[in-house]
Design a protein that fits this description.
By secondary structure, this protein is mainly α. The chain has helices at 3-17, 26-33, 37-47, 75-86, 92-104, 110-120, 130-148; strands spanning 21-24, 54-59, 65-70. It is built from seven helices and three strands; from the N terminus they run αβααββαααα. It is elongated and about 50 Å long.
Length: 149
């Protein structure tokens, strides 16, 4: 198992044990897991994002910490949060992450996830010039999600 997976699993366990809130001392966690502190930063910035359903706060300095909070919201609130986080462009990978996250949190069902994934696939945009695909994907994804609210 890769170190990033080990770090992510440990943080998820911390979140489960503390009802969705975890305060992490980056250097202490790195020493405990036997990795470098930058590995902790990488995992947090790539796997604990608003798109994944987390809020991350940090405080620097001697008593610094990183606080991760799992967002608990109604399905409608979660969908609206996702819509508001998209922006003007959306690449295929980010769309897939959002779809998988909504499926894992039971915000959408398997059939809806498959439909969203089909609409976000590169195949759906083959006739669209490359420079416009992410703009169109964002617009379509937002509109599809709005129909679920």
């Amino acid at each position: 198992m890769r170190m990033s997976d080990i770090v992510a699993r440990h943080i998820l366990e911390m979140l489960e044990e503390s009802d969705g809130n975890a305060e992490i001392q980056r250097n202490e966690l790195a020493a405990y897991l036997g990795c470098v502190p930058s590995q902790i930063n990488y995992v947090i910035t790539s796997r604990f994002t608003p798109e994944h359903g987390y809020i991350v706060e940090s405080r620097r300095g001697g008593g610094g910490y990183i606080r991760i909070t799992k967002i608990t919201a109604t399905p409608t609130d979660a969908i609206m949060h996702i819509i508001n986080s998209i922006g003007k462009r959306l690449d295929k990978l980010s769309a897939e992450i959002m779809i998988n996250n909504m499926l894992a949190r039971s915000i959408i069902n398997e059939e809806t996830a498959r439909l969203l994934a089909a609409a976000m696939s590169e195949r759906s945009y083959l006739d669209i010039p490359q420079q416009y695909r992410d703009f169109l994907r964002a617009s379509i994804f937002k509109n599809m999600l709005l129909t679920l609210v």
